[in-house]
Design brief:
Layout lengths: L2 H22 L5 H32 L6 E5 L2 E9 L9 H17 L4 E7 L6 H21 L8 E7 L20 E8 L5
Parallel strand pairs: 3-4
Antiparallel strand pairs: 1-2, 2-5, 3-5
Helix pairs in contact: 2-3
């Protein structure tokens, strides 16, 4: 064997060994992998228990109101917490008691939860106008929860779906018949830790 072939062979063996050892640095021990999976499963189970606890709290407190509470993919929707008059974004007095109750539950049991207020409009105005009106309605509920019920401003967000057709309760309905479309709903995006 010539020295040139020998050196080439040694270089090839050296490169192969280096690549093989470099691959080993990314190796995860089975025990570490199993521990990580167990930790993730425990975290998932804990979060699911928090969601279930919050859903039960909401259902027991809001049974007297005409509202529906639904759990969905780690979030809880409290549908229709406020209705609005045609072309208005003023919160009605008869909706305030339910919002007070909601804020009380959140402050008492889930003080670090993250809530999104969703605003909606009926389809009588332009798309842009209805989007703005839906946002004003969502802000009216958000501001009430923050200013009157003591929820932290950082934990309550407001968004608008305007006249989104796939979100209308009574598709196409306006004026008196469209009141179910002129609403605000609450979504608990993160239940936080149970107090």
């Amino acid at each position: 064997m010539s020295s040139k072939v020998y050196r080439t062979l040694c270089l090839a063996v050296g490169v192969t060994a280096t690549v093989a050892f470099a691959g080993c640095t990314n190796y995860v021990k089975r025990s570490d992998f199993d521990a990580a999976i167990t930790k993730l499963q425990n975290t998932d189970q804990s979060l699911q228990q928090q969601i279930n606890s919050l859903q039960q709290d909401m259902q027991s407190h809001f049974a007297k109101y005409d509202t529906q509470i639904t759990a969905m993919q780690g979030r809880i929707r409290v549908d229709t917490v406020a209705h609005f008059a045609f072309n208005e974004a003023t919160l009605q007095d008869n909706d305030k008691a339910m919002l007070d109750e909601f804020a009380k539950v959140m402050r008492t049991h889930h003080s670090d939860a993250l809530v999104t207020v969703e605003g909606f409009a009926d389809p009588s105005g332009s798309t842009a106008y209805n989007k703005r009106l839906g946002k004003q309605r969502a802000n009216a509920v958000r501001n009430y929860l923050v200013n009157n019920d003591g929820m932290a401003a950082s934990q309550v967000r407001a968004v608008s779906y305007g006249e989104a057709h796939d979100r209308q309760v009574k598709p196409g309905a306006t004026r008196t018949a469209g009141e179910p479309n002129r609403r605000a709903s609450l979504v608990i995006d993160f239940a936080g830790t149970t107090s």
